[in-house]
UniProtKB/TrEMBL annotation:
UniProt protein name: 4Fe-4S binding protein
Any GO MF annotation of the entry: metal ion binding
Pfam families, sorted: Fer4_7
Swiss-Prot/TrEMBL keywords: 4Fe-4S, Iron, Iron-sulfur, Metal-binding, Repeat
GO cellular component: membrane
Organism: Mucilaginibacter rubeus
Keyword Repeat: yes
């Protein structure tokens, strides 16, 4: 009976001493070191329980996948990123151009306008698939991870700078060109039938 009482007190003392040790050791501040530092994961052993955010921030790994960014000058509006996205957070609307509208930095010819290129980061699961399939590497993941907003709609980022009026004008130009091609095709068919 005496041994059981002694065991109860020693067990309670071990738990209490552990709690007290963490209570006073948890006041240590985390030193900012890079992930490649050999001491990075051993910081937890030094009594640091948390960081004082936003005054202190954890270092961001170079290979970290965070906020998506699109370089629209290099985008050919191929829609591959939207098709591969498992959560449908990328919304793209393209308009065919009547002629080549320029080139990307790697020399790819651009033939589509981006009337809409929106990414909803509230839906994004940061898988990085969109960056892998992009043929011109215009969509990338940056090291920006702190995007705190008050409204959920503020997490929808619009990368296209085309106004609705410009989009309507480009659509009208393309429709006019297609109508002219169709009329020329019909005229050629009539002429061929008349000459035969």
């Amino acid at each position: 009976m005496v041994q059981k009482v002694i065991k109860v007190f020693t067990t309670a003392w071990k738990g209490l001493s552990l709690t007290i040790r963490h209570l006073f050791a948890g006041n240590g501040k985390r030193e900012i070191v890079t992930v490649s530092d050999s001491n990075y994961f051993k910081q937890l052993e030094h009594g640091t329980n948390t960081i004082q955010y936003p005054k202190q921030q954890l270092p961001v790994p170079e290979v970290g996948r965070y906020q998506l960014d699109v370089e629209m000058d290099d985008c050919i509006v191929c829609d591959l990123c939207a098709k591969v996205c498992p959560v449908n957070c990328i919304d793209i609307e393209s308009i065919k151009a009547t002629e080549a509208i320029g080139q990307t930095s790697d020399g790819t010819t651009k033939r589509l306008y981006a009337a809409k290129f929106d990414i909803d980061m509230a839906k994004c699961m940061y898988c990085g698939l969109c960056t892998i399939v992009c043929p011109t590497e215009c969509i990338t993941m940056t090291n920006q991870y702190d995007k705190t907003v008050f409204q959920l709609s503020d997490l929808v980022y619009q990368f296209s700078d085309m106004t609705p009026e410009d989009a309507a004008e480009k659509r009208a130009l393309f429709d006019k060109q297609q109508a002219e091609k169709q009329a020329a095709k019909l005229a050629a068919m009539k002429q061929k039938e008349g000459g035969a």
